[in-house]
Amino acid sequence: MADTHELMTHDNMSRMDYAEHERTYSGFLTLAKWTTVALVILLAAMGFFLT
């Protein structure tokens, strides 16, 4: 299995799928944004109902 692993070299770096990379990064940012919003709402609700 280790012998089938392809190392990143200068020759194959240009074959990276940049569109897929940017789509994944955009998805990560969207997830982080909505997780932050949900946590702020949760903390506000806890502060309101538990005090």
Overview of the structural elements:
By secondary structure, the chain is mainly alpha-helical. It has a domain of 33 residues. 63% of the residues lie in helices and 0% in strands. It has 1 helix and no strands. The longest helix is centred in the middle third of the chain and has 32 residues. The model has no long low-confidence stretch (mean pLDDT 86).
Write a brief caption for the model:
With 51 residues, this protein is mainly α. The chain contains 1 helix and no strands. The chain has a domain at 19-51.
What percentage of residues falls in helices of 4 or more residues?
Answer: 55-70%
Unreliable residue stretches: none
Q: Total number of helical segments? A: 1
The overall average pLDDT, rounded, is 86
Sheet/helix structural class: mainly alpha
* Portion in beta strands: under 5%
List the helices and strands and how they pair.
Layout: H1 18-49
Using brief descriptors, characterize the structure shown.
51 residues, 1 helix, rod-shaped
